[in-house]
Amino acid sequence: MTLLKSENGGWEFYTNGRVNAFFSWAKGQGLPRPPFTAAGQPAYGYPEGVGGTGFGDSESASDPVLDPTETMKIGYTQGEIDTMRIRSGFVGNVLGFGLRRPFEGTMKASAYISIWSVVESFGRRKYYVNNPDVREGWLKLEGPWGSFLGGKALTLFNRGAGEADFLYLHGYGLGYPGSIGVSGPAAGLIGFGILGPTFSAGLVYASPPIAGIQLSAGIYDPAQLTGSRFERTKAVRPEFELTVDEPLGDLGKVHLYFNGTMQKLYVSQQPDAVVTNGAGTFGGSETAKGIGYGGRVEVGPAHLAAGGHRGLGLGLDFALQPSPQTYNGISQLRDSDGYYVIGQVSVGKFDINAGFGRTRIKPLELDLVAATDSDYPAFSIIHTQTGYAGAVVFHPMDWLHFDVDVMHADFKWTLGDRQRITFVNAGTTLTW
User: Is the pLDDT of residue 81 over 90?
Assistant: First the structure.
């Protein structure tokens, strides 16, 4: 929406954005609980307290478990979750402002800032302030030679997967809320076959499209694995994306993508290389890395997207996520992968969407070794997260959107623990 435009065809000041609100109902199993030994103690634990990940924690209605003498509470049963919230969707409330102008004939300059917020309170504490988040802020120069972008914008790694979720499934919905108490935005299908791109400070060059082929390459502010031994970095993080766009005449189009990232990590306050002496072993480094691949095709009213990712030290939700699902107790990086399929049929003013995705964390050798005097390893870790999603979206106007979406999540741990929970969401989005 243009707000101001100079008479001589110079600067144009515009705005875009959205506001939404959703009813969200979560119902299903609570976090799993380990079996008990003959002595009445939990047979094993989880990397992040009870449950490790999954959905909920104190939210389940659970019965207490007593010790063998029935005189002391030692835990709770898995229980059930049944809770509702009013919250923001997959994309929160966004207010964007931009400037753009042509110059030197075929050249163009632009700048953009977007401010994000959500409607729900953190931890359902109504006295908490919902602080705005300046999610984007970048400048861009474009010409026959390609384009250059500098600032905070969406990263290149696995960008195609996030776009597929937005375009064909949760762009006007909610999907997986991520947690009950923490404020959003929601996750859509991220964490279930999709490793989400993030907003990060970077410098990115994109080549001009040649026969529909375009290469983008960027360097980003480095990211360390907070909570692990590798909390030190030196070099910026390189990322790339190769895309292919092919029109299908009047029928539709095809978009393919392949991208990657890597980050060198070093042990905090220790030497770069491993040093061994009489006092022990010190220092060292690891390299987190990953690739993403996939594409989407549109043929008339039918739209289909599919893809996947794999890598080392990536995590469940986004690359280099500080989490025991990214590294173990001695900071060995975990291998992970995921894949997704999303489909959409647009009929008049209605979109009918469906999606499936699964992320897998591969156990390390130490994860499967039984603890001393036990038949079990010390911890059970998340092994797979599987999501089944569907949505119906009604667009009575091009600026007004009504959504009803459902998602079923299935979490499995390495020692057989399991949690299944369903989310029902309904809401309205206004865009401009």
Answer: yes
DSSP assignments along 165-233, one per residue = HIIIIITTS-BB-S-SSS-----BTBTTTB-B--EEEEEEEEPPPBTTEEEEEEEE-----TTSS--B-
CB atoms near residue 158 (< 10 Å): 33
What is the biggest distance separating any 2 CA atoms in the chain, rounded to whole angstroms? 86
Strand runs labelled E in 300-349? 302-312, 335-347
DSSP string, 11-51: -EEEEEEEEEEEEEEEEEE------B-TTSSBS-B-TTSSS
First to last CA, the chain: 7
Residue 50 has pLDDT above 70, yes or no: no
Identify the three-state secondary structure at position 123.
helix
Contact 314, 336 (CB under 8 A): yes
User: CB neighbours (10 Å) of residue 182?
Assistant: 11
Task: Write the pLDDT tens digit of every residue in 270-297.
Answer: 999 988 888 788 889 999 999 999 999 9
Q: Where are the alpha helices (DSSP H) in 28-169?
A: 159-165
The answer to whether residue 67 scores a pLDDT higher than 80 is no
Residue 282 pLDDT: 83
Q: What is the CATH number of domain 2-431?
A: 2.40.160.10
Structure tokens at 384: 């797979």
Exposure string (b/e) for 222-247, b if CB count within 10 Å is 16 or more? bbbbeebbbbbbeebbbbbbbbeeee
- Out of 128-132, 361-365, 419-423, which region has the weakest mean confidence (pLDDT)? 128-132
Average pLDDT of span 354-374: 93
> Bigger pLDDT: 67 or 132?
132
Chain-centroid distance of CA 212 in Å reads 28
Burial degree of 291 (CB within 10 A; 0-12, 13-18, 19+): middle
Nearest CA-CA partner of 289 in 255, 326, 343:
326
Cα(103)–Cα(10) distance, integer angstroms: 8
Instruction: Please state, as a whole number, how many other Cβ atoms lie within 10 Å of the Cβ of residue 73.
Output: 10
